[in-house]
Specification:
The chain is of the alpha/beta class. The chain is 35% helix and 29% strand. α3 runs parallel beside α5. It starts with 5 loop residues before the first strand and ends with a strand. Bound molecules: adenosine-5'-triphosphate and magnesium ion (MG). Adenosine-5'-triphosphate binds next to β1, β2 and α1.
Length: 228
């Protein structure tokens, strides 16, 4: 398969936590290159470091050691403000625990990433309306996250991640709380985004079936990569 330029270059990434007097390693010497246009599935047992790796790739967490080039930028050397600008411009993140804003309605949650964009209010409304429709949650638009089921919150989290048309979509078990039909619909949505719009996707999944939607599977075991 033919892909674009090197979008992500992780070199010898280590992440640890100080537990008691010693270091507890979460990522151990992870090196990984991902090209624009890839659709990657990360798999591995609970606690193997999948979410940690995805947060580092998504500029939401920093390693304790190693280098990270995102679109050629040495992101670990950037100031917080520049890093956050890169995030807002390029990255959509579907969090494992949704991370919706409790005080905002479904509509407002999905609209959040668009606030930073130079869009007319009518354009914002059209984008949110389209996403509500695509994910079958039009009837929920004025409800707050606490008034939704887990699966519905997950759909809102996915809609929010797509709102600003990211070039890189990072999804941490995006279908974990959906039924199998909904899960399949989300995987087909991701596949279309990848194939038709060229969105680079990295998903974490426990499902072999969902992992197979990607072009490459990366296995994490005890914080180390073994590619298949
Ligand atoms: N603040 C912290 N202090 C100590 N250890 C931590 C901290 N945060 C995360 N860890 C550890 O990092 C390891 C990796 O966590 P991570 O969330 O990346 O795993 P995961 O592969 O996503 O697991 P899951 O499949 O259950 O979501 C875990 O063993 C966890 O206990
Ligand atoms: Mg996780």
């Amino acid at each position: 398969m033919q892909f674009g330029y090197e979008m992500i270059e992780l070199k010898n990434i280590f992440k640890w936590y100080q537990v008691g007097g010693s270091r507890s390693f979460v990522l151990k010497d992870v090196s990984l290159n991902i090209q624009e246009g890839e659709f990657i599935s990360i798999m591995g047992p609970s606690g193997s470091g999948k979410s940690t790796l995805l947060h580092i790739i998504g500029l939401l967490d920093e390693p304790d050691e190693g280098d990270y080039l995102f679109q050629g930028n040495e992101v670990l050397k950037l100031k917080e403000k520049q890093r956050s600008a890169l995030y807002k411009k390029h990255i959509g993140f579907v969090f494992q625990a949704y991370h919706l804003i409790d005080e905002l309605t479904v509509y407002e949650n999905i609209e959040t990433p668009l606030i930073y964009q130079d869009l007319k209010s009518s354009e914002r409304k059209a984008i949110v309306a389209d996403l509500l429709d695509r994910f079958g949650i039009v009837g929920k638009k004025d409800l707050f996250p606490v008034q939704l089921s887990g699966g519905q919150q997950q759909l809102v989290g996915i809609a929010r991640a797509l709102a600003a048309k990211p070039t890189l979509l990072l999804a941490d078990e995006p279908t974990g709380n959906l039924n199998s039909k909904q899960g399949q619909e989300i995987m087909e949505t991701f596949l279309r985004l990848n194939k038709e719009d060229g969105v680079t996707i990295i998903q974490v999944t426990h499902s072999e079936k969902n992992a197979a939607y990607g072009n490459r599977i990366i296995n994490l075991l005890d914080g180390q990569i073994s590619e298949v």
